[in-house]
Write a structure and sequence with these properties.
Elements: H1 3-49, H2 54-73, H3 79-91, H4 104-110, H5 116-129, H6 133-141, H7 144-150, H8 157-166, E1 181-182, H9 196-205, H10 207-214, E2 218-229, E3 232-242, E4 247-253, H11 260-277, E5 286-291, H12 296-303, E6 309-316, H13 322-340
Parallel strand pairs: 1-6, 4-5, 5-6
Antiparallel strand pairs: 2-3, 3-4
Helix pairs in contact: 1-3, 5-8, 7-13, 9-10
Length: 341
C-alpha cells in the first residue's frame, strides 16, 4: 500500500467516524428538544387548568413567559412558539406517541392541521418516507391526502382509517396511484400547448421532485426505453422500478386526454416486459398513462378486462384548488356517514 492510498483510506475512515458522530449527536439533540418542548407544554396546560381565569391566564402568562425565557435562553421562545408547545402537549398527551424521527419544525407544521385523520396521515407518511420539512410542506400544499382518497373515484371509511393509521400502504399497485399528479415544480404555463418530448425532458431535469411526487420506493431506470417486436422498435416514455412492489413501472406521457389506443400500446409494452425483462423475483409490471384529462366512462371501458395493471391519471401543472378537493372528500364521507345510519 503506497502513501497516497494509505492517506486516502485514513481520511475516509475519519470522515465516516465524524459523520456518524454528528448524526448521533443531531438525533440526541432532537430527542431532547422534543421532550423538553412537550414538557413545557405540559406545565403550561397543568397551570392553566388550575387557574380560574383561563382566558386571561393564557394571554398574560404566555406573553410574560415568552419575555422571561427569551431573556434567559435566547431565541425559540416567541409567544407563537410557546403556543405550539402548549398545543403539542394537548395533541400528543402520551409522550411516547411523539416520533423522534421528525423534527420540531415537522411538528409545528403538523399542528396547523385540525383534522386528526389528515394530520395522522402526514405524520405517518413523513416518518415512512423520510420527508424533509420542505418536502412535507409541499405534500400538504398539494393536498396529497385528498388526492389519494379520491384517486379511485371515491373515498370510504376503511381507506380513511388506513391512511390515518399507516400512511400509504404499498400492498398492491393501486395503492401508489394519485389523481391528479401535480407538476407545479416544472413551472409550466397553464393551457399552453406542450409536446410530449418537452414534458418528458422537463420531468427528467426535475427527476428528484418527480420521484417525490410518484411516492415511496421508486427508482428511475430511464427514458425512451426500447421495445423491439418483429424488427420494429417502440419506445416507452419513462421506466421506473418500485422496490416495495418489486415491479417495473412503465409511464406513458400524453399531452391530450386519454385515448383508447394509448391503453393498447401500453398493454403491449407490459406484455413485453413481463416476458423479456422481468426476472423470477419481479412481480408483473405496472403501467400508468399520465394525461391531461380522462372521461370516466371511456376510461372504464378502455381499462376494463385487462390482465395487466394499467392505470390512467390526470396531471396538472399547478397546485389544485385545495378547498375544492376537501369539499369533494367531505361530500363522499358524508355519503358513507348516511349509509351507516
Amino acid at each position: 500500500m503506497n502513501d497516497l492510498t494509505y492517506t486516502t483510506s485514513m481520511i475516509q475512515e475519519i470522515k465516516e467516524l465524524l459523520s456518524g458522530a454528528r448524526q448521533r449527536v443531531a438525533v440526541q439533540v432532537n430527542t431532547e428538544l422534543l421532550s423538553t418542548y412537550w414538557n413545557v407544554g405540559r406545565i403550561i396546560v397543568e397551570h392553566e387548568q388550575n387557574s380560574h381565569e383561563r382566558a386571561v391566564y393564557g394571554k398574560q402568562t404566555l406573553k410574560a413567559l415568552s419575555k422571561e425565557l427569551t431573556k434567559e435562553f435566547g431565541k425559540g421562545f416567541s409567544v407563537s412558539n410557546i403556543q405550539f408547545m402548549r398545543r403539542f402537549y394537548q395533541t400528543y398527551q402520551i409522550q411516547q406517541t411523539v416520533s423522534v424521527k421528525l423534527s420540531w419544525s415537522h411538528y409545528c407544521e403538523l399542528l396547523t392541521i385540525s383534522d386528526d385523520d389528515k394530520r395522522s396521515f402526514y405524520e405517518k407518511e413523513a416518518i415512512n418516507s423520510g420527508w424533509s420539512i420542505r418536502e412535507m410542506k409541499r405534500q400538504i400544499a398539494t393536498s396529497l391526502y385528498e388526492r389519494l382518497l379520491l384517486s379511485d373515484g371515491k373515498a370510504n371509511k376503511e381507506k380513511v382509517l388506513a391512511l390515518a393509521e399507516k400512511g400509504i400502504e404499498m400492498a398492491q399497485p393501486a395503492d401508489m396511484i394519485k389523481d391528479p399528479y401535480v407538476f407545479e415544480f416544472l413551472g409550466l404555463p397553464e393551457n399552453k400547448p406542450l409536446m410530449e418530448s418537452d414534458l418528458e425532458k422537463a420531468l427528467v431535469e426535475q427527476i428528484e421532485k418527480f420521484l417525490l411526487e410518484l411516492g415511496r420506493g421508486f427508482m428511475f431506470v430511464g427514458t425512451q426505453q426500447r421495445v423491439t417486436l418483429n424488427n420494429t422498435h417502440y419506445y416507452v416514455d419513462m421506466v421506473f422500478y418500485n422496490k416495495i412492489l418489486r415491479a417495473y413501472v412503465l409511464i406513458e406521457l400524453k399531452t391530450v386526454k386519454l385515448m383508447p389506443e394509448a391503453v393498447g400500446q401500453l398493454n403491449m409494452y407490459l406484455n413485453y416486459y413481463a416476458a423479456e425483462v422481468n426476472d423470477e423475483h419481479d412481480n408483473p409490471p405496472i403501467g400508468i398513462i399520465l394525461c391531461t384529462d380522462k372521461d370516466s366512462v371511456a376510461a372504464e371501458y378502455a381499462l376494463g378486462g385487462l390482465a395487466n395493471n394499467i392505470f390512467a391519471s390526470r396531471y396538472v401543472s399547478y397546485i389544485p384548488n385545495k378547498e375544492q378537493l376537501i369539499a369533494q372528500v367531505e361530500a363522499v364521507l358524508q355519503e358513507w356517514h348516511k349509509e351507516e345510519k
